Input
Amino acid sequence: MDRQPIFDELFGFGQTPRGPYEQYMSWFDGENKNKLEKKSKEAEAFFRATGITFNVYGKKEAQERLIPFDFIPRIIAAKEWEVLSRGIEQRVRALNAFLHDIYHRQEIIRAGRIPESLLDKNDAFCPQMIGFTPPGGIYTHIVGTDLVRTNENQFYVLEDNARTPSGVSYMLENRETMHKMFPEIFRQNKVASVRNYPKNLYKSLADCAPPACNGKPVVAILTPGIHNSAYFEHAFLAEQMGAELVEGHDLKIVDGRVTMRTTQGFTIIDVLYRRIDDEYLDPLTFNKNSMLGVPGIMDVYRTGGITIANAPGTGICDDKAIYSYMPEIIEFYTGEKMLLENVPTWRCSEDDSLKYVLDHLDKLVVKEVHGSGGYGMLVGPTANKKEVETFRKILQKNPSNYIAQPTLDLSTVPIFKNKKLDPRHVDLRPYVLVSPKNVDITPGGLTRVALKKGSLVVNSSQGGGTKDTWVLAK
Output
């Protein structure tokens, strides 16, 4: 059977620009390409001077790297964004309802809609959260929903990032860089702003203040420290929000409240946006060897003395086996059909699915259920026979640790290379803020691009880059 052509977001399946790109391409075609190449190098210098980097673990070469930035924007029409927004909001509301349920009555299991084994054997399930409702009833305050596109009107949710989604600082800096490089484009195109994200983040977190809060909530970001891969983002968001950036050793529990050390003594923290994993949050509750968290913070949390965002135990929604049940989860809690489709998924824990996956390894993408960053996965069509056979043994040894999906023909957006446009595969991570009052979806998000021709792996840790994402205003 002949393979379908790849959908190009600039040209579709034709030779002329699609509607969202018409105005931009009119500008681009009239620009001197030598000057554009010079601008591209200026952007790299700006990112380097600003310190927009990330760390790569387990590499002998320089750990700190610059994320490649391509200045050709990804452009989404207002009507397309409306469809995506409705689907994302439905999904995020269902995830919060699911989290409340599994840590209380577990009605979805009683109803037989998902198997109990998904929780019993899941390291991301947090027994310490059973019977406890976070302030405002919100579990996952910041969500990054990864989307891919395969056609004009076909988007899929690739995965949910409900624990500690990263990358929003690159979304903001990409836009700032574009404004500096090409201010005239933004006068010609009505692009929805992303500039208010830090202000909206602060407000959303403040709206989730705990019962013990007295007056204006004090918000702080808990970072593992400068060696963390996303430290730039932690520091950036703290500065933009006007919040304190703290490490575990800066914090102390005083009279049943979490406080931070300041030059004026200890100040109470009401909301802690934590950027460390559950395991390291409280050595008295989780990993006793952790030096990153705050001893006793879970006791303060459970007695209403602090809000932790995102709540411990939300990582179970990042589990790719749980992801495969999202159609059932959404219908169970909303009474609606899923608006944004999942990628078809085989659960390797099931015998029939495992047999199918083993028979078709060279055609599938196989992922760890708790994997991230493009690690621990097999992309069958691009792997050689030795890699496939090696992975086969790993899969047979521990099948419940994996799911498999078809290799999607991800849409492409052009990059600027050798003074020309060259298509590359992309995904999209919109950022969602959830509070008791509102679900706020920033118009756009982070477009990650596979800079290697033909590659489907867009993660920065695997050599991917980023683009500015435009949502055209109505």
